[in-house]
Amino acid sequence: MRENLKNNPNLNEKSIQIVEKILSKNDLKANELREHYKNDGLYTINFMSSPGSGKTTLLENLSKFEDFKFCVVEGDLQTNRDAERLQKMGVAAEQIATGEACHLEASMVERAYNTLKQKGQIQNCDYLIIENVGNLVCPASYDLGAALNIVLLSVPEGDDKILKYPSMFLCADAVIISKADMIDYFGFRIAQVQEDMQKLKPQVPIFLASSKDMNSLEKIKDFIIQKNKEQYFSNHSF
Predict the structure, then answer these.
(1) Domains plus CATH for the chain?
(2) Is pTM, for the whole model, over 0.70?
(3) Contact yes or no for 104/142 (Cβ under 8 A)
């Protein structure tokens, strides 16, 4: 990250120093969060995507699986609508309203996580899911201490986003093509996504997901459970 900043012709030395200071503070907090998650016995997943990709709908459907108990830290600029949707499904969810911030930072997650703990809502959970603010740029720069980073790409967005937004997809330990039941309507090319991911970050698993196909969602659930059993931890450096 530091070398990328220094090689950027659009940034002067002062800009580099400011960005480094902000991110180093976030990274320290993220490391603290990693220890908290571990001590509390939670495997943590960071879900990232553009707005409207179906992150909350995916979580609503994942909550239907008896062997997948999770709580959620929910990020949006305004409103608590997504948290309320999950709470109606019986999922413990704490909303973060970021105001004008286009991403979550580790300190924001810490406050929401502590609130979940104080309410006693993590005790029966095996997983913490962070639903990041909808954005294909900014969240790619902020470590939240998660073990697994999953990026959603919805069919209506188009199949060309991988190489247009490489920083985001470089974060991915898995990619989910959501709203897959609409593939034929939009002429979405799965092969294009596979080819671009192979160029950018080979061997990252790609899943198709549709709220109309619980088998597709079960594969995602089983993948996360398996990563937890393996105690997999992402080696991506934000």
Answers:
(1) 2-230 (3.40.50.300)
(2) yes
(3) yes
